[in-house]
Design brief:
By secondary structure, the chain is of the alpha/beta class. The protein is built from eight helices and five strands, in the order βαβαβααββαααα. It is elongated, with a radius of gyration of 29 Å.
Amino acid sequence: MTREPYLIGYARVSKGDDQSNAAQRRALDAAGCKRMFEETASGGRWDRPKLLEMIGQLREGDVVVVWELDRLSRSLKDMLHIMERIEHAGAGFRSLTEAIDTTTAAGRMMMQMVGSFAEFERAMIRERTSAGLAQARAEGRIGGRRPKLGDKQRREIAESVTSGRKSGAEMARLYGVSEPTVSRIVAAHRQQFSQQQREQA
């Protein structure tokens, strides 16, 4: 005889939020959840302590219930990963607000469609990235950020600071770079000058 599905609620609010899990808890209680996992954590990560604890205790036939999909995760990629973990445990998933229920054929089809769209999006991103790199190679461009300062500008910065005509802060403002960048340019210039002196000695 098949046992009645054991409904497990998961409620989450983000850190720093003024709200509490109370509204979610009431909705999950009304839905018939027998057990509740609650935490205050960002939805941008899937490896949350209470979420992992819940997934680790799932049994076949259990159903994870959330108030809204974004309580599970704000990232589509992470949400699909969590759904895979739930499915691997033999459990189902239900979202009250979006009326998604993977214990039904329609709910499973909807999640498969979501997964298909996510995979399509990743494939399109990969394709655009590959096309962009190929175009850059064809035009003789190399990946990475273009240097902000040319050799002449770097030399002017180094000579102005080492001669005392300008301070590092002044040169940083003049060329729109940070003071640490100016310091590195001056240090490299001094090291190069010292090496040249040793070679000539």
